[in-house]
Amino acid sequence: MDKLLPIRNNKRVNRADIPDLPFDTFRRQLLACAAKGGQVVQFFAYEDQNVCKLLAVMRTDKLYIGGCDAPDAFASLTAESEKFHMFEREIGEQYGLKAEGHPWYKMVRYHANYNGKKDVFDNDYSQEIPGNYPYFRVEGETVHEVAVGPVHAGIIEPGHFRFQCCGERVFHLEIHLGYQHRGVEKLLQSVPMKRMPIIAETIAGDTTIGHGLCQAQALEALAGLEVDEGARTVRTIALELERIANHIGDLGALSLDVAFSPPAAYFGRIRGEYLNLTQILGGNRFGRGLVRAGGVTHVMGDEQKQLLRDKLAELTPEVEHINELIFSSPSVTGRFDNTGTVSRENAEQIGLVGYAGRASGLDYDARVSFPTECYGELPANSNERTDGDVRSRATVRREEIMHSTRLIMRLLDKQVEAKDYTPQELPLAPHSFVVSINEGWRGEVSHCILTDTDGKILRYKVKDPSFHNWIGLALSLRDEGISDFPLCNKSFNLSYCGFDL
Amino acid sequence: MESIFSFCFAILITPLLPAVIKKVKACFAGQQGPPLLINYYTMAKLFKKGSVYSTSTTFVFRMGPVVGCATSLMMLLFFPMAGVAPLFSFHGDVLLLFYLMGLGRFFTILAALDTASPFEGMGAAREAFFSILAEATIFCILVLFFRLTGSLSFADFFSSSHPIGLAGEHGALLILVIVALYMIMLTENARVPVDDPATHLELTMIHEVMILDHSGPDLALIELGAWFKLLFYSAFLAMLLNPFQLQNTWLSGLLFYAVVTFIYITIGTVESITARYKMNLVPKFILTPFVLVFFAAILTMELN
Fold first, then answer.
1. Highest-confidence range of A63-72, A146-155, A236-245, A295-304, by mean pLDDT?
2. Contacting residues of B for A259, CB less than 8 Å apart
3. pTM for the complete prediction?
């Protein structure tokens, strides 16, 4: 780890300062970091003057960065640490760099690579997937296979799920995504700067603020912009409101999935109330158009503050009451307890983030570890229940709703007002790198920007928390009843489009 | 004449009652809920439509809904609604009827398997398994009733000179039977906590998943069949619960349907205040009523 460079969240790094290691050293350094409990924040390939390079950002209690020239085929890191497995597959898919010895080497989103190299998965992209992809199979007379999706019964996004079952018991679940691949990363590198936030906000519709904020912070770091205290407060409140709205919606959906309908109806309504609060804050229920590099587009005046305060004071007891209804029903807790358990050990091994990770006992919260905006001055949350089952994930969310409400109340008491925002063309620092990390409602959202010598964006890398957590859902189903899949799925509630990019 | 009228009335009112459950559930959720006549509209809509058949299905698939609906309807032909003598009756009709119902289920399961969909196969397996467990209770109830009345016909159970009822001489035993029958009703009619009729999640469904591929009039027949079956079970319960033997047919009919509606309301209430069980707990839930009824049957041993 000594050869990696410690960096800070949202601080510009001169690309010349990033250690350029030989691949073997790079590999050893990353594995050493992972062995000490480090997790991967970003690990991706990029092309600079026709040379493929690898770059990795690791986190322990600090952030570390390292890079190397990428060999066309390299010894897989996943062979020694599972934390890298999705990243290596993505690198292979995007830049045709083969990770040799990767135990489960398959495509991530099913698209041809960016630089026209030979496809490492031997896919013919004129063919449709998943028809011709060999899924992992369990053989045996009593084993049967259940295929779900990509088109689902409810109004949800497309994804294919392949279960290997024995009766009601699931041996293995393989999740195949990529149906919504839009080429977001490529798009962000090519559009004019004023369109960038619009795209970032639609990476995952439910994480509008999370992704928008990451991008704004990254651009600010590269353009050397300082954001005033008032704007930072509004951004923090917006991120917390997004968290509350989503957690409430999901707790309602969880209770609906176990056929306990009244809380679902109540929470459906209350989620709308929180979305309306976001509208008061920024003019849009999902927070679109609020966060921009340099500040926020809406000023929060005393009237808005009072509205927020009154509404939160009215809603919070209602929310707590309904939560009590869910969590005190024996029939509900009977379904939640010991269902879809991901052990702490497994969670650590695959690097779960967000509430899923915290429910399995991993304390990581980007708001605490790498605070941005106002989080440095705000108290952290602690979780009571960390058994890794559906109950824990639901309880963590319940606690986070209350914690977030307290944070917002505290922020509303601050006597600061955001400055007026004027859109401007931002000249980005040349030959620089920045990583920005925020705790979106689902977990760690991270954007990376690399600029070339002219200050143009060379590589834009996006990572949604779902990128880490989908494998967690697959693990939670091991040895579980197949009829509990919807419940487990909802308890994670991962993003398809955030993963597919 | 009375029998024909009673039968027709039962058929006409069938679609109304399940809407009561929906209303109750909506009430608990603080919603307005669908209109009480929703199911009549649904029927009209479905019968106007055409059916879509998958090319992989055979005639078995088309037979499923027809047989299913017909067998449930037959239950009502033989059941003495509100104590009015049924249209048909003979000694041993209960055995025939419950097996006819089994036949209906058999065809529904076959139709589900005929689609070759993994979901429907899973649903069929669950339905077959759970109904076998439920059958044990039902026949145990029949054994008990045979011991009490010496007859195996619905008409004799309820419209003879000494009808079985909570107010009758074996009322205490019947408490156990009523509880058991209620649980069986929830099981057999795919209600919470065994199944969730409102869910859209195929992987968790039991009954609903078997009928995913049916459409139009076929779906209408399946729905009708399900409603007939639910009406039969609640009528069965209502006859056991009803404490009054009124001479006036109209009054006793009114009272009977009031009790039936009350049972539907309780179903809605149960669905609003409990979550569904985990699939592996369902067999325990279904076997509980068997234990209750078996105990009641043991208690009758000293009678003869």
1. A236-245
2. 192-193, 196, 198-199, 271, 275-276
3. 0.91
Residues B247 and A92: their CA atoms lie apart, in Å, by 84
Dump pLDDT digits (tens) for B144-167.
Answer: 888 888 888 888 888 777 778 877
Q: How far apart are CA B122 and CA B203, in angstroms?
A: 8
Hey, are the CB atoms on B272 and A486 less than 8 Å from each other? no
DSSP secondary structure, A61-109, as one string: SSEEEEEEEPPSEEE-STTT-GGGHHHHHHHHHHH--EEET-TT---SS
The closest of B94, B70, B227, B97 to B158, measured between CA atoms, is B94
Q: Quick check: B303 pLDDT over 60?
A: no
Cβ partners under 8 Å of residue A348, min gap 6: A37, A362
Distance of CA A493 to the CA centre of its chain: 11
**Structure-block tokens of residue A455:** 């200050």
Cβ-based neighbours of A99, under 8 Å, separated by 6 or more: A73, A74, A75, A76, A77, A78, A88, A89, A91, A92, A105
| Domain range annotation of chain B | 2-303
> Under an 8 A CB cutoff, do B192 and A482 touch?
no
C-beta of residue A368 within 8 angstroms of C-beta of residue A380? yes
Residue whose C-alpha is closest to residue B182's, from B141, B152, B125: B141
Burial pattern A318-341, b for ≥16 Cβ within 10 A else e, equals: ebeebbebbbebebbbbbbeebbb
Task: Say what the pLDDT of residue A131 is.
Answer: 62
Domains defined along chain A, listed by start: 5-100 (no CATH), 184-500 (1.10.645.10)
CB A270 within 8 A of CB A248: yes
A321-345 pLDDT per residue, tens: 999 999 999 989 989 999 999 999 9
| pLDDT confidence band for A57 (50 / 70 / 90) | very high
Instruction: Nearest chain B residue to A327 by CA: give it.
Output: B275
Give the per-residue pLDDT at B270.
Answer: 92
Query: Token pair of B45, please?
Result: 């809509």
ipTM (interface predicted TM) = 0.86
Total count of residues recorded for chain A: 501
B28, B276, B281 ranked by CB distance to A259: nearest: B276
CB within 8 A of A293, min separation 6: which ones? A197, A215, A216, A219, A220, A223, A225, A426
